[in-house]
Amino acid sequence: MPTDPAPVTPDAPSPIHAPLLTQQWLDLAFIHWAVEPGVVAPLLPAGTVPDRHDAMTYVGLVAFRMDRVGWLRLPGVPYLGTFPETNVRLYSVDAHGRRGVVFRSMDASRLIPVVMGRVGFRLPYLWSRMTVRAEGGTVTYTSSRRWPGPRGAYSRITVRTGERIEKPTELEHFLTARWGMHNAFFGRTAPPAYLPNVHPRWPLYRAELLTCDENLVAAAGLPAPDEPPVSVLYSPGVPVRLGRPARPAGIPTP
């Protein structure tokens, strides 16, 4: 691992003045399981290793609504740029100490953004039937995969939101305050790149997991969870700016 990873901070380390993309992430459910770093290390891009908190790393299942994706400084698109999404993600760090996420799957309900994400950004977007429904103090997220597969991979998640978290724990910051992603944007033979993001500090709430019937984690090449998650959080969301990919140099030492 890097000898001096960047600290985990609730605020973005630097601004993005000229964004590549703008969007909003709304009605998010963050569900996390602890795993041994060796389980996920083979699934990360070359040049990154699992990021750890108290010697463990984490698998995240994050369901939300993407809202009004826009290019550069153009207004966000209300229809094609607005859709439910559910991600399976891992936690990574590179030789520069930059902490990020690695997406193993990104189910979304709009076909055109899925194709653009796969072709233009080489991200693991998948086309699925999806809904997000809020009723009273609960939010239910459903998905059923259409293409490319495994066809029929599914999730049904219901959370009940609780009290606002005034002072998130170190682990809660570690799981949510991730200021970039690592991905092979430039092709499999090129070094992975780091795409930064910035947004206001997360408004986080305690949440109770009422339903979690899914096989997305296993479909993403990870062991299916056999224990309750160690963390369940809810956020009403934040506006987000994404910067341009920067190629990391060097490979961290395990």
From TrEMBL:
It comes from the Bacteria. InterPro entries: ADC_dom_sf, DUF2071. PANTHER family: DUF2071 DOMAIN-CONTAINING PROTEIN, DUF2071 FAMILY PROTEIN. This is DUF2071 domain-containing protein.
